[in-house]
Design brief:
single chain, alpha/beta, FAD/NAD(P)-binding domain, Polyamine Oxidase, Chain A, domain 2, protoporphyrinogen ix oxidase, domain 3, 3 domains, seven-stranded mixed β-sheet, globular, binds flavin-adenine dinucleotide
Length: 471
């Protein structure tokens, strides 16, 4: 007799998404989370008029799964769209000042970002033959297709600022799946973008950038309190063992030990915690998980008077190429992005330091983090005031790095896990770190679990819940 259909270990967005999708199909699902509250890395804080995020600040979506979840979970009315002011510019630091990244060909020709030779190299892209190989790094891929200047001045900033990674080590297919797919499908990025624009009208979901009223924590609160998702916080899973047609999971809780038997167990913790849980069952998977490295990150929120910043802040913020030698990877103008992030007459500026580029920054004192941030911001956006609000978050395991032969590693983990029916791994070290990818992957896993349940129900009709049988 099984206690529940599915137990999810870890109540971050990966675990909660899978739980939510499973619950939509009528399965009995519990989420066991070690911490006192769900969300994992995603935590919003509303205090003294400033709404700040510990990690993810927005969802950049183009996946129908996310649109479906937002709609079905009743989150449509709580969406906070990015303001039109934030759409105006995407800035990069170039030779010590901010330069807007051109989005059209005309802008590219006039942009000071590239030399004449660099511009010519960009225009040659459609004529470069396809030549991707699985171990290709981001640096190799971008240099091959778009030239060295594009790598040094744009992609390095993107990969370090958004993914905390080093393009010399990051796997191109795993880090830039959409770009590499364009080359694979259409032979060149230019042809791919053109075809994508033509086809998108009929197929894909409209791209949009948004958060929620109350921040990304609203997504977490909604998923974790949805009907059918039973969240058990302060349940630190310590043991996982095969049981008859399922798994026995044991946790320590403030009230003592607790165990449950589940047909499916989804391990949605960071890779190091997953390795510890799985090591007694399968040294091979544990060994693979232990090879996944993480970049540490420090997040520095500064709130100050609008009058203390000289720049119009007419965009979402800026990214920093490594060749500029600044301590920041990027700076987001949160009060421009969303209307509710700072009190009237104030601004909220959020900076990201550390990553693969400068991992030691996560160990800097609060004072040094603020001083280095202000020293970098002063000449770029004319910060002349002291912050009235400072919030700092350190993430020692900030973001998993999709380095080396990461796609092969993912395949190997999946193949090895298949040797343990009912055991699943789903977290941000597989298939994309973004909240968007986490939601989409959660749905794909829920579908696989439901398919397996349908197969089991054909053999053991008594264990099938009515909804699954009706699929
Ligand atoms: C600084 C930063 C900024 C980011 N910004 C964005 C952004 O703007 N947009 C975006 O889309 N993405 C962003 N991301 C990425 C995104 O936030 C993360 O990839 C995502 O939140 C990770 O979710 P997860 O569920 O896989 O892992 P986690 O959030 O780490 O959740 C894992 C959970 O497992 C729990 N756990 C661990 N061990 C156990 C155990 N033994 N028993 C029970 N529970 C356990 C942990 O307590 C935790 O709650 C950002 C990330 C960082 C670090």
């Amino acid at each position: 007799m099984h206690d529940i259909d599915a137990l999810i270990i870890g109540g971050g967005i990966s675990g909660l998404s899978t739980a939510w999708w499973l619950a939509q199909s009528g399965l009995s699902v519990e989420v066991w989370e070690a911490a006192a509250r769900p969300g994992g890395k995603i935590q919003s804080e509303q205090r003294d008029g400033y709404l700040t995020e510990q990690t993810a600040s927005l969802l950049l979506n183009f996946r129908p799964e996310v649109a479906d979840m937002v709609h079905l979970a009743g989150l449509e009315a709580k969406k906070a769209a990015r303001t039109t002011a934030a759409e105006a510019n995407r800035y990069l630091v170039h030779q010590g000042r901010l330069v807007s990244l051109p989005m059209r060909l005309g802008g590219l020709v006039r942009s000071p970002l590239w030399s004449g030779r660099g511009k010519l190299r960009l225009l040659l892209e459609p004529f470069i033959p396809a030549g991707e190989h699985e171990g290709e790094t981001v640096s190799e891929f971008i240099t091959r297709r778009l030239g060295r200047e594009m790598l040094d001045k744009v992609m390095d900033a993107f990969v370090a600022g958004i993914l905390a990674a080093d393009p010399d080590y990051a796997n191109a297919a795993a880090t830039l799946p959409r770009l590499t797919a364009l080359e694979r499908c259409y032979g060149s990025l230019t042809a791919g973008v053109f075809m994508h624009r033509v086809l998108r009208r009929r197929t894909a979901c409209r791209a949009e950038t948004f958060s929620f009223q109350g921040g990304m924590g609203t997504l977490i609160d909604t998923l974790s309190s949805s009907p059918g998702v039973h969240l058990r916080s302060q349940h630190a899973v310590a043991d996982l063992a095969p049981a008859r047609r399922g798994w026995r999971v044991s946790a320590t809780t403030p009230l003592g030990g607790r165990s449950v038997t589940a047909r499916h167990v989804v391990v949605s913790t960071p890779a190091s915690a997953a390795a510890r849980l799985i090591a007694p069952l399968d040294q091979n998977i544990a060994g693979l998980l232990q090879t996944i490295r993480y970049a540490p990150l420090a997040v520095v929120h500064l709130g100050m008077d609008r009058s203390g910043v000289g720049h119009p802040l007419d965009g979402a913020g800026f990214l920093v190429p490594g060749c500029e030698g600044l301590p920041l990877n990027g700076n987001q103008w949160m009060s421009t992005l969303f209307g509710d992030r700072a009190p009237a007459g104030k601004v909220l500026l959020t900076s990201y330091l550390g990553g693969a580029r400068r991992p030691e920054a996560v160990e800097w004192s609060n004072e040094r983090l603020v001083d280095e941030t202000l020293a970098a911001l002063r000449p770029l956006i004319g910060v002349g005031a002291d912050p009235e609000m400072v919030r700092i978050h350190r993430h020692h395991e900030g973001l998993p790095l999709y380095y080396g032969a990461h796609p092969a590693l993912e395949r190997e983990i999946a193949a090895t896990a298949r040797r343990h029916p009912g055991l699943h791994l789903e977290a941000n070290y597989l298939g994309g770190v973004s909240v968007r990818d986490r939601i989409a992957r959660g749905r794909a896993l829920a579908r696989r679990i439901l398919m397996q349940e349908r197969d089991v129900s054909a053999v053991y009709p008594a264990v099938a819940s009515p909804l699954i049988a009706g699929l």
